[in-house]
Amino acid sequence: MSVWNELTGQPEAIEVFRAAAGESTQQSAMTHSWLITGPPGSGRSNLAYAFASALLCRNGGCGVCPDCRQVAARTHPDLAVLATDRVIISIDEVRSLVTSSQFSPSVSRYRVMVIEDADRMVERTSNVLLKALEEPPERTVWILCAPSEADLLPTIRSRVRSVRLRVPSASDVARLLERRDGVDHETAERAAREAQSHIGMAHRLATNDDARARREETLNIALGIQTVPEAVVAAARLLELAKDDAEAITEERDAEERENTLRTLGVEPGQAVPMGLRSQVKALEDDQKRRATRSLRDGIDRILVDLLSLYRDVLLLQLDSELELINLAIEERLVRVARDSDPAETLAIMDAIAAARLRISRNVTPALALEAMLVTVASPQRKATL
Predict the structure, then answer these.
(1) Taken in order 349, 354, 357, 358, is the CA torsion positive or negative?
(2) Which of 144, 201, 253, 378 would you call most buried, defined as having the most Cβ atoms within 10 angstroms of its Cβ?
(3) CA angle, corner 307, sides to 304 and 312, nearest 5?
(4) What is the pTM of this model?
(5) Angle at the Cα of 353 (from 212 to 83), degrees rounded to 5?
C-alpha cells in the first residue's frame, strides 16, 4: 500500500515527487517551493497531498499509518491547507497561511503548505505569498496547484519548481475507478469516457445514479430542440439541472460543516445558538452561500462541457473520423444528427457553446447565455425537420 497507488496517468510527475520525498537531502531532487499544473481533473490536488503524505509520513507515504490518515483528513499538525470554493482567495487567508508557515514542524521532518487553485489569487494577494516563497524557513515546503503557469505572476513562477500534468487516458481513469472505488469494468469505462478523463467527474458518474441521469437528460434536451421557444424552455431546464447538481454536491457538506462548527462551539444538537456565537455561525453560512454560487457556476460549465462532447462526436461522424466517440451510448441518435446537418453547422454550435462558457465566466446572466447558445442549436435541427 502506498499513497502513490491512488494516482493514475502521471508516471513522470510521480517519479519527480517520489525522488524528492525519498532523497530530500539532495539539492537536485528536493526544493522548498513547488507548482503543480495541469487541466481540470488531471489530479493536481491528489498529487499534492500524496507528496505531502510522503514528506510527513515516517514510512515515506505508506498510506495506512496515522500520519497518512491525518493528511487524507487534512488534520495533520504539520499540514496547512488553503482551499476555497469561492471565486477569489482573499488576502487575509494567504496572510494567515504565511504566518503559519513560519512555525517549525511539530512531529515530522517538514511543515507542508498546500494552496489549491492558486490561480484564484489576485496580484496583491500573490505578492503576500511571494515574500514567503523568497525566504522560506528551512523545513517548510510550499505546494501550489493551478491550471497553468501562466495563471500565476512571473515573480511567483520564478521561485517554484514546476511539474506539469497531462490529461490521463480514459483507460487509466477507468482502472483507477475499478481499483479504488470497486466499480465494475463496464461502468468505469463509460464513466471515464463520458467524463473525458476528469477523475473527479468520472468518480461521480460511476458512483452516483442521479449524476448519470442529469447528464443523460442534458444530452436529450439538446437533441430534442427544434424551435426557438423550445430553446428558451430548454435553457431554463438546463439551469435547473445545474442547480440540482450543485445542491447535491454542497448540501451534505454544508450540513456536516454546520454540525461540526456547532459541536466545536459547544452547542448541542437542537439547542439555540447563543447570541455571542451567532457571528461565527453567520460567517460559516456566508461562506457556504459563496461556495454555492461557485458550485452553480461549475455545474453550468459541466453541462456545457457535456454539450461540447456531444457535438464533437457529431462532427467526428460527419468527417468520417476514426477517433472513438465519447457518447457511445447514444451513437445511433448521433448518426442521425450528423446525417441531417453539415460540419459548418456543427462547428457553429460548438462556437456558440464556447461563447456561452466565456460569457458566464464574465458574469453574464446564465439564463441569457444559455438561451443564446440553444437558439443556435435549434437552427440546424429545425432545418432537418422541414
Answers:
(1) negative
(2) 144
(3) 125
(4) 0.77
(5) 65
Residues 238, 370 contacting (CB under 8 angstroms): yes
CA separation for the pair 264, 212 (Å, rounded): 36
Cα Rg of the chain, angstroms? 23
Q: Per-residue DSSP letters for 302-331? A: HHHHHHHHHHHHHHHHHTT--SPPS-GGGH
Q: 286: helix, coil or strand?
A: helix
Give tens-digit pLDDT for 16-50: 999 898 854 444 578 899 999 998 888 899 999 99
Q: Is the Cα dihedral 291, 292, 296, 302 positive or negative?
A: positive
DSSP three-state, residue 140: strand
Q: Is 311 left (phi over 0), alpha (psi -120 to 50) or beta?
A: alpha
Cell numbers given for 315: 462532427
Do the Cβ atoms of 327 and 309 come closer than 8 Å?
yes
For residue 144, give the DSSP letter.
E
